[in-house]
Amino acid sequence: MRLYLQRNVSRALTPTGGFLRGFAFSLNSYVGCAFGDNDGCPFCYVRALPVAHAVEGKWGSWVIAKINLPELLRCELELLARNDKLQRAAVFMSSATDPYQGIERRLCITRAALCSLADRPPYRLLVQTRSPLIERDIDLLGKLGSHVIVSLTIESNDERVRRAFTPTSPSVSRRLACARRLREAGIFTQLAIAPMLPNDPVQFAALADEVADRVIIDTYFDGDGSGGRRSRALGMRELHERLGYAEWFRPGAERELMAAMRSRLGPGRVLFSRDGFNAINPARCR
Ligand code: SF4
What we know:
The structure is a single chain. This protein is α/β, with parallel strands linked by helices. The protein has one domain (3-277): pyruvate-formate lyase- activating enzyme, CATH 3.80.30.30. It has helices at residues 69-82, 104-107, 109-119, 138-144, 159-165, 172-184, 201-211, 220-223, 229-233, 236-242, 255-265, 273-277; strands at 3-7, 13-15, 25-27, 30-32, 62-66, 90-93, 124-129, 148-153, 188-193, 214-217, 270-272. Strands 2-3-6-7-8-9-10-11 form an 8-stranded mixed sheet. Strand 9 (188-193), helix 7 and strand 10 (214-217) form a beta-alpha-beta unit. Helix 3 runs parallel beside helix 4 (138-144) and helix 6 packs parallel to helix 7 (201-211). The longest helix has 14 residues, at 69-82. The relative contact order is 0.13. The chain binds iron/sulfur cluster. Residues 33, 35-36, 40-41, 44, 46, 60, 97-98, 130 line the site of iron/sulfur cluster.
């Protein structure tokens, strides 16, 4: 059973840095996450961060909606614009959860935030999600125009792999269809293969070429902020072994996919790990 709470917070935009060094702020409409089988995604390192203890109960079983976030955001954007800072700022939505939690359908906090951002766009907004619910907001994303990048996470092209690792997440075909729809609406769309799970490199590259403007590939060893230590601590090695994918949990396992993607999409459309996520200037390739 999942617990849904609503809380007031004191700020909307959080100054960021570290892995997201290209972004001035992160924006999280929710705390906690209800994706995954009541236990979050097995590779989710947020569960090991202090924010995962905001509520008693295991990570993946609760979500807090920041109910006053839209009005705070409107004021903060206005202030940044007045000080000429908004025009230079990049915002990452969301760094510690997914902005399209199921409850977003009813609460529309992310949608209200996008309304404010469309009225006062920052230099760049990156919206990262695994949920096709983002299609609901195509009108606002369109209004943001060249200010927005949508980053759809899709860890593998293999439906059996998705079912084995993240059984309650949206299917591969649904996520690819979502990317296609966003891109056809003129929204710059990237696939975030993060963390990369076992896949068929050549097939994955062909699919990505059809639906995405660019691809970011990330791994446990480059993207967890600790050279793979966090992922090991989460038991990812054992999980790969248990599921019969032991050879995929090693540094360099991404090389075949990188090569296949670069060969199919061209090197300019395939970026890697931290540099990729911080590439805030889209180069449109059709
Ligand atoms: S959807 Fe993202 S934030 Fe939620 S459990 Fe999975 S990896 Fe973590």
